[in-house]
Amino acid sequence: MWLRIVTAMVIVYAILSAGVFLAMKQTPTQFGSVMSKLPMVSMIVLPFEPLWNIARAGVLKAGDPAPDFRLQTYDKSSLVELSSFRGDRPVVLIFGSYT
User: Fold this and answer.
1) What are the pLDDT tens digits along the chain (99 aa)?
2) Dist. CA 42–CA 56, nearest whole Å
3) Domain range list for the chain
4) N vs C: which end of the chain shows fewer Cβ within 10 Å?
């Protein structure tokens, strides 16, 4: 009986971990909608950080050029493209919140 219970718990744990991993591979909006429905205890019980590191590892290595992207300026008056600065001057990208 105990073997069946432990086996069932391991299977449920593996299924939940796989589900969270698949959610991490989705767009941030989809991932956020999945995470908003999970209880906070799942962040403690499931191997969240190792799964996140694997799911979002990417393919860039140190020294690789940054991929090109285009963003609106803060005042929405124009677009800025990263490649327009290549070879001209250094660019520092700061990620965070200003709220």
Assistant:
1) 999 999 999 999 999 999 999 999 998 889 989 889 989 888 889 999 999 999 988 888 888 888 888 989 889 999 989 888 888 888 887 777 666
2) 19
3) 2-55
4) C
